[in-house]
Amino acid sequence: MVDGPAGPPKARSSAAPPSSPFAWHGLGNWNLYFLAKLLLYAGNYLQPSLLWNFVFIAFLVVPAPWSWLNRLRHLAGIPIAIALLYHESWFPPFRRLLASPELLDFSPIYFLELAARLIHWEWIGAAFFLIVAYRFLSQWLRFTAITMTAFTLLAIGPRIATPLLEWRANSSPAVVTRTQLSESDVMSPRPESGAAMAAPLPSDPAWLLPTANVITEPPDDDALNRALGAFHQAEAERVVSFSEPEESLPIDILMVSVCSLSWSDLDDAGLRNHPLLAEMDIILEDFNSATSYSGPAVLRLLRAKCGQQPHSSLYEPGSAECSLMQSLQELGFESAAALNHDGEFQGFLSELRQEGGLPAPYIPVTERPTLTAFDGAPIWNDYSTLAGWWAQRGQSDAERTALLYNTITLHDGNREATRDGGGRPAPFIERARTLLDDLFEFVALLERGNRRVLLILVPEHGAALHGDRMQIPGMREVPTPSITRVPVAIKLINAEAAPPSSPILVNVPTSFLALSDLIARVMAGNLFNAESIDWHTLAADLPQTAPVSENEGSVFLQYGGTPFVRMGERNWVRYPQ
Roughly how many angstroms between the first and final C-alpha of the chain, as a whole number? Predict the structure, then answer.
């Protein structure tokens, strides 16, 4: 039997055979996440945590037998990816945030302002280009293989490079000089002509000074930890002694502690040449506040008679010989305090009284505030606050008074207070100019009187107006020199001798020990009663302090002129410039 004519050939099915539930798949769109992180690693915007990245990649690519489990895995990957990205960033650890419930007191406006600083249009444009490039090139390239290869090279690269570096180090002299460092590695201030120059004390670890010419060890973790330990050990042996002046003169010491004012901030605001600074007698140009937060900064000021302590030691009972206020009390000074804010945030006032032994401060609560703080608290005008305290001082019988005045006029997030109880934006430059004008006017008020006053301007830290690769604007988790290098100055008001024709500039690395030394020199020399003062001699040979700065979760130092930072329990890394 003959078959009939064959029908049209059957079309071949184009559907792929069903894949095994245990088949291996690539990262898919997760490649974008990991490739973006590789770019951030290359720019030093993140510190890689390679082990956890490999664990996360394995979690994403391991076969899932059911489709719903695969979808659930990708959903669970979103919070994991965010947490891992945060862990690798330079933001404070979550435990720091959980230990700071006062952050919930920030006003909604301030939260929005902080959120806006996280938006970088350049990054948004780069992300858009990365997405388009990925979608286009993924037609031909296997990006999972590229991602895995890149992370593998990132992991084994240091293991290959380290033996080569060790071989090179063993075949060359052990001492590395500054001339062997690239110019970008060196951060060394250049002395200006006419500035008072001081030699470091013998106990100073010279390799931590920015002008150090020799590095005794390569800057690995062990060497940097030893350098930090040697610094603290040397600083623990340093102390400034106060002596009773030959003549008991009625003198007041007024220390003006300013929150959020660094040399970098003055430059940004165009206020470096403000008349207030031109009126000062001595300016410490390279003064390191050693921290970027207010509480530790004030504690360091109150213990200024001793060398720089580790951050953790600030919250332990201090030695009596280190207490600046207690030493002044022994010389007959009555302690006093004044604030242009309520001091409630983070228990600042309680800390001030407990650690500094200060009495209840003068706060002009009856006056109308001029600013509203980031947490909604009132802030009063600086001149009216100081003038109000000075009026009370005139009614006191105390022969000598030592005042600690703290102002937060320049703190991040402050707004101009309006009569309806609200607020409007108050740019930093306007607040900074107003503050300096107020202090300049207060100096004129003091000069119109007949009391001798040692005025000390000592900012706590800077405002961090500009961020960098590690920190957004306003973030001060890492105490970098742009934040901790602050303008410290003194002025002898109503002294018998004429002031210098221009401020004496001291541009060697100094800190609170040098400030105590200056106070001791002024007191011991009876300089207010001297017919003439050798201002250059007064400012010469002040004790130097290497620029080492610490917060609760970070340490910053310069090793042979190169900046390094350690965050929490992590390893030391070179700070990106």
Answer: 90
